[in-house]
């Protein structure tokens, strides 16, 4: 899975039905992507991660907090935004695509070859 933006929002909510409502409100409030949703204790507790640009994640988390008025504020256990998470956090969330890393390595090799050969056009104009 590729990273979407530079921030993540983490929600922990009591009950699956509450989670569906809260996440729906968050997704409608801002342009963020649902990264994961895990149910534990038979749906008694749900852990959800959203990702996007910093301002979008903040807006989505604010909408999630506001939805506590409907589902009960005590049912939203965690509602946090993390701007520019450490690389290891992205790995924890499995949001670093191995192919993305491999392509960066390959791109670096291509640029090395261009430097040695003078680049693609070799200084000639073929207009």
What does this structure look like?
It is a single chain. The protein is α+β, with helices and mostly antiparallel strands and 127 residues long. It has a single domain, classed as Alpha-Beta Plaits (2-Layer Sandwich), CATH 3.30.70. Helix content is 45%, strand content 25%. It contains five helices and four strands. It has helices spanning 16-29, 54-66, 68-71, 87-92, 98-117, and strands at 7-14, 33-40, 45-52, 76-83. The protein has a four-stranded antiparallel beta sheet, with helices on one face. A hairpin with a 4-residue loop joins strand 2 (33-40) and strand 3 (45-52). The longest helix is centred in the C-terminal third of the chain and has 20 residues, at 98-117.
Q: Which characteristics define this entry?
A:
127 residues; 5 helices; globular; alpha+beta; 4-stranded antiparallel sheet; Alpha-Beta Plaits; 4 strands; disordered C terminus
Walk me through the topology.
Elements: E1 7-14, H1 16-29, E2 33-40, E3 45-52, H2 54-66, H3 68-71, E4 76-83, H4 87-92, H5 98-117
Antiparallel strand pairs: 1-3, 1-4, 2-3
Beta strands, count: 4
Along the chain, the helix and strand elements come as EHEEHHEHH
CATH fold label: Alpha-Beta Plaits
What is the general shape?
globular
| Rg from Cα | 21 Å
Q: Indicate the mean pLDDT.
A: 82
Q: Please identify, by name, the CATH architecture.
A: 2-Layer Sandwich
Domain BMC: 7-94
Keywords: Bacterial microcompartment
Region (Disordered): 99-127
Main location: other
């Amino acid at each position: 899975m590729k990273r979407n933006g530079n921030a993540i929002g983490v929600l922990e909510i009591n009950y699956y039905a509450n989670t569906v409502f809260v996440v729906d409100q968050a997704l409608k409030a801002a342009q963020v992507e649902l990264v994961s949703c895990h149910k534990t204790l038979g749906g008694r507790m749900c852990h959800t991660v959203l990702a996007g640009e910093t301002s979008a994640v903040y807006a989505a988390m604010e909408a999630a907090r506001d939805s506590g008025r409907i589902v009960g504020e005590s049912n939203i256990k965690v509602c946090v935004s993390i701007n520019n998470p450490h690389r290891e956090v992205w790995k924890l969330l499995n949001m670093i695509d191995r192919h993305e890393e491999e392509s960066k390595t390959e791109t670096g090799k291509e640029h090395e070859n261009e430097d040695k050969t003078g680049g693609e056009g070799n200084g000639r104009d073929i207009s």
